[in-house]
Amino acid sequence: MRRFGPADFRTMPWANGRGATVELYREDGADGLILRLSLATVAEPGPFSALPGLARVLVLIDGPGFTLDIAGRPHPLRPLTPIRFSGGAPAAAREVPGPSRDFNVMRAEALPPAEVRVLTAGQGMTAARVFLFALAPTRITAEGDTVALPAESLAEVAGPAELHAGGPCIGIALA
Questions:
Q1: Tens-place pLDDT, residues 81-107
Q2: Which residue segments constitute the domains of the chain, with CATH numbers given?
Q3: How far apart are CA 162 and CA 141, in angstroms?
């Protein structure tokens, strides 16, 4: 099991220059980005960066939310409800009453899609690789170990991962 905390994270500008994201984890391959997990604050209406070739999943984790317009169709964001869309689709934040934070998963579209779920106590995920992002302090059991995971930290495990207590966490399962 690997754990990542604030010392491992880095702040990166958005591709469109309208804000910044906190990159929690990034994995690149010969053809570019394979996987990126990040946090972003949306504080005003405006376009999302165009990221063709990437599948995106966004989860509202804090704030009043906003409407995500994807290719002309409105999608009101609800707390802790993942929304999936293509990074190449035109997307924009609309109806932004105040700052909101979201958790983002970006994965190369050529790869199997990431399964993204909000997990509560006693729930888990099984896959070749699983990442867990703690929304509150929690304990996780994986690979025979139980460890404390502080709020807004990340753990990567191989194989099954079970949320032992506390929660919620965002689980990302990769084939």
A1: 999 999 999 999 999 999 999 999 999
A2: 2-108 (2.60.120.10), 115-174 (2.60.120.10)
A3: 5
